[in-house]
Design brief:
Strand order of the largest sheet: 1-9-8-2-5-3-4
Largest sheet: 7 strands, mixed
Strand content: 15-25%
Distance between the termini: 47 Å
Shape: globular
């Protein structure tokens, strides 16, 4: 796809704070990794203390998904989740303003043979992943071995949308807004590899309830429908940072067989189970602050507190 077109309207004074933020992100990407990691960890731990709603949502999710852990262990995992999310901000800036080649000797790939086998079919490939703290960097590192389209949620701020899309297209083939199903289908029919993350709660429409970490979760049926486009293969991906070092591990699973089965609940349950197995490899690098269980089956109580609404005084 062609890069987004710059408009002079993006230079209007109302966008100056956004441009300043972009400039700061660029500067952050120039810092040595040791400093980035410490600053990111500090930023995440500050958010843990100050952003109470996100902290509470995280602790609720961890209590639901890891009942075998005591309260102290879940709080430790929650802090680690925020710490990794803060580091992930710096990793995203490195993806946007750095070069993937920098990571060639810092990443270990497993399962590339599964992707090559799927490519040999000459069909579309649906690459399913989850929302990890280093999501953008994971995509940039993937470009060392294959080009992939990404499905994303457009930003409301037009400056961030322009810069984010422009920079992502340096390592993505196509960037596809999540509502643009026509373009998504076109990508699969063109035998592209499409990166798709089905692990969020999008409400009841196009969803079924399927277990995720043992909890009924509204799960979109879109992957099963997309798999039928061009008889596309479905594989899963997982990537994570190894400890505090600038070392990463990237895993690609074999293509799912007998998928889709035609049973929406069974297919959604299977995807959730596969994602869960991968998330458990590095749970503290998953974005537990998402309200994954917001939509409940009929008759079940809400699991999260109502979001606070700020009123003008």
């Amino acid at each position: 796809m062609n890069p987004p077109i710059f408009s002079l309207s993006l230079l209007a004074p109302k966008y100056w704070p956004a441009w300043l933020a972009i400039g700061l992100l660029w500067l952050m990407a120039q810092l040595p990794w040791a400093i980035q990691r410490r600053l990111g960890a500090g930023l995440g731990l500050l958010a843990w203390r100050l952003v109470s709603q996100r902290r509470n949502d995280t602790l609720i999710n961890l209590a639901l998904c890891f009942p075998e852990l005591n309260e102290s262990a879940r709080e430790t995992m929650g802090r680690d989740t925020f710490r990794n999310a803060g580091i992930g901000i710096f990793e995203a800036t490195n993806a946007w303003f750095g070069h993937p080649e920098y990571y060639r000797d810092r990443i270990t790939f497993e399962g590339l043979e599964h992707l090559r086998a799927a490519e040999a079919r000459g069909k579309g490939i649906l690459l399913l992943g989850a929302h990890y703290s280093l999501l953008d960097l994971g995509a940039a590192m993937a470009s060392l071995h294959f080009k992939v389209d990404t499905v994303y949620r457009p930003q409301k701020n037009l400056v961030f949308e322009y810069v984010m899309t422009r920079q992502r297209q340096t390592y993505h083939l196509w960037t596809i807004p999540y509502r643009d199903m026509r373009l998504l289908i076109k990508a699969l029919k063109s035998s592209h590899i499409v990166w798709y993350t089905p692990d969020q709660d999008f409400g009841r429409k196009h969803s079924v309830f399927a277990p995720f970490f043992g909890i009924n979760a509204a799960t979109i049926t879109t992957p099963a429908r997309l798999a039928q486009v061009n008889d596309s293969a479905v594989l899963l991906i997982h990537f994570y940072r190894e400890g505090n070092n600038e070392r990463y591990r990237y895993l690609i699973t074999p293509a799912l067989d007998n998928y889709p089965s035609g049973d929406d609940v069974a297919d959604a349950s299977r995807i959730n189970a596969e994602l869960e197995k991968l998330i458990r490899r590095s749970p503290e690098q998953y974005m537990w602050s998402h309200r994954r269980f917001k939509t409940r089956p009929e008759g079940e109580a809400k699991l999260y507190e109502e979001k606070k609404k700020w009123k003008n005084r």
